[in-house]
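User: I'm preparing a small set of examples for a lab meeting where we compare how different chains pack in three dimensions. I only have the primary sequence for this one, and I'd like the structure in token form so I can line it up with the others. Please keep the answer compact; I'll paste it straight into my notes.
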Amino acid sequence: MTNRPKVAIVDASTLASLGLKSILQMVMPIMTVDCYGSFAELEANQPDQYFHYFVAMNIVLENKAFFQERRKKTIVLTTQTEHEDTKTQRNGVSPLDGFHCLNANVPEGELVKALLMLEQHAHGQGQHLPAMPKVLQQKILSDREIEVMSLIVQGFINKEIADKLNISLSTVITHRKNIMDRLGMKSVSALTIYAVMHGYVDINKI
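Assistant: Understood. Below is the structure token output for the 206-residue chain.
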């Protein structure tokens, strides 16, 4: 059996780490995600076993040499303000040049989209990753449910979906409930991840 690829989150904020871990595990169900509160903790746990590091900006800057060598697999967690502040350093050249940056200070939907775009850019067609478990590859939804799901994740409300598909509002609501129940999901963010990862909707349409 292929070992599950691993991702590390390095951030002193436990709450931020756990929130990001939850989203990452939705985006990439085959990943194992470990959280560390400091660089020292990461360093003590075989850091090169990880496919990617999601690291708070201050930790990257304090340990620049380590992450510079591994910048292709390092994603720097910033707020937009923090990232803008770094651009004024070193004669206008940001110390984060060459790193992927992820603004973590955005609504969940935006963060999910950013992570999906990052995942698709880095691992298009699942390159370098083991196959998804069979249960996640199966077609669980009917064709009509897939149509409804696609419109939900594109931001259409129930009435608009009913009009587009020429079905009643109550039918849309029933489909919506069945989709969530069948997939075991409770949020539109989780549904968005499922739809994009299975190729049911283009990420540029969400």
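A couple of notes for your slides: The first helix runs from residue 14 to 27. Strands lie at 6-10, 32-36, 52-56, 74-78, 100-103.

User: Perfect, thanks.
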